[in-house]
Amino acid sequence: MQTVMALCHFCENHGPRVVMTTQSMRDSTQTECCGPACPISNSVMFPEEGNSYRDRHVDCLMNEVRDDEGRCMACSSFCDGSGLVTTDLDAGINYISSQVAVNERVCQLVKHACLRSLSCEVYASMPLQAPTSTMKSTKSISVPTPNARMGNFEDSWLEANVDEGSDGIILFGDDDHGYTLSHTFRLRDAKARGFQRWFSLIVICMDKLLITNNYEFFVSSLSTIIHQLQEQANNVFFMEQSELANECLKQASRASLLPAHFMRNRVTKLELDTSRSLALITANPNIFTKLHKQMTYVLRTQARLCTESVLEGVPTQDALVQLELERSFDEEMGSELSATDWGIDALQQIIALQFIARRLYQLEQQPLALEALLRQLVTGGQVLVKCDDSSFARQVLIAFAYLLPIGCVHLTYSQRYEHVFKYNLLACPMSMQIPADAGDVVIASVVLDEEIDSAETLQCSSFCDEFSPPPPHSPPSFLDSSCHSDEVANASMDAGSQASSLVLQDFARCRFVRFSAPSSLFVSDSAPAIVTRYKQLLLDNELGSRVLEAVIKNTREQWLSRAKLIYQLSRQKEGIDLKKVLHVVKCTQNDAPVLRFWQAGLSKVYKQHVLNTINSCQQVYL
């Protein structure tokens, strides 16, 4: 259910009744319920888009809903279960108008909204303004009254007896019964009680935002339809009243010449007809056909103007940095981590990190190897991976890079040593010698065994099961094109899972044969908080891969936000105590090296924006 429009009437014989309902349905559903035997009428056409529409008068709508309510001509529109259908060939949507909705759930929602709009909900008094919609107006003929005095008297009498507190626009509803935009109004009828009939036009939708976002359009469209109905009803009313007024004046002028009570019954008697249809009080036998056209216009225009799209939100610093790297052609200033590397699935990197973390944690040579490597990684020190397999060594570095902002990652596989100021993640062959002036470098030598343990094989297979997409749960009403796109996506995901399985098998048979690091990295008391956090997450066997991915990403963004704040305050002209700032962001002096290094992960656009803002503020104060 998208949006449903309905015309409701407070019948003097039966109470609140739904006179006409217009709803949209997919063309496939319509062909199933109507079939080819339905007669076609070209009386309902959009002249400006006649080639895009097919209009029919349908006598075989869905039999899901049966109208068992008592009705008269005043609260009826289409008899014998017939209706009108306009098909939008471009969008594949049918707009169906019938006396009751063709769906049981929609029918109950419309009845509930009708009852509330005509009995419970009260609108504050406000004059109806002239419509401003561009909808094509109906040409009307003005019929002057023969006695202006009598007409003015009747107009003032009607205005005094109309309860304007119940007429107007109101929005009500809830999540269970949908949200309704109701516009109540009155039409003049010379043979109704009080010379007026009470109607309402309602728009129903389960999405409150859809109604509120299109409030102006709905109100303007409803006002236009109501204004045209009132014009037609007024013309008929004045015509009938003029005939009745002339007859009453003639009888009243002669009554003084007759004996008392001789013609009182005939003079005061008013012929009431509470069952007159809307077609009769507007003198338009095709009024419901016209309403079908107008309601279809409103529903179709709303669907065309308002399209839903998924917004990605404010770009993160990693997204901005990656965009800058893609635009940069300077290899010396940029990272050798290409966009293809970052396109590797994050789950694959997470599983690789878990393999590496367990291998280092179980390393007998250095019990604190994992903590030392993480500390070197997050503080900007150089991590060197020695491996003769260049492809696998690069995969190890890419896994390490997931723990850092993109702007802090500079990696490569080289046959000769590169200093830390150029690459903080470096891979090289096992035979390469490290120069003496290399500084503090963490070196991890990795080899790939020929065989793999059965436990590791089971873990790889479980990951592939988790990596593979679940079977689609799409309802059968989806279009074939969407199903085809799902099949293509599933095929591509299957190919990706096979490639990931091969990569993870390499990680399962990798083994660290040597690990060396500066002695300062093995001091546990001075470790930054993020090192402890990363170690705890990577060694937690109860966390699934997808959960671990989300938690690591959240942790990375949290520390990058702290680095943003430190960068802003450190660039101020006035002296600021950074110790107090660290206390505010819940960090200690041990975390200061991490925050300084992670400022390199901020985008150039953001840094320039901060500097421009500070300079502009300084100029204002000067």
Automatic annotation (TrEMBL):
Stretches of the chain forming a coiled coil according to its record: none
Similarity annotation: Belongs to the folliculin family.
Gene3D superfamilies: 3.40.50.12430, Folliculin
Superkingdom of the organism of origin: Eukaryota
Keywords: Cell projection, Cytoplasm, Cytoskeleton, GTPase activation, Lysosome, Membrane, Nucleus
Protein name (database record): Folliculin
Compartments reported by the entry: Cell projection, Cilium; Cytoplasm, Cytoskeleton, Microtubule organizing center, Centrosome; Cytoplasm, Cytoskeleton, Spindle; Cytoplasm, Cytosol
PROSITE patterns: DENN_FLCN_SMCR8
Gene source species: Ascaris suum
InterPro entries in UniProt: FLCN/SMCR8_DENN, FLCN_DENN_C_sf, Folliculin, Folliculin/SMCR8_longin, Folliculin_DENN
GO BP terms in the entry: negative regulation of transcription by RNA polymerase II; positive regulation of TORC1 signaling
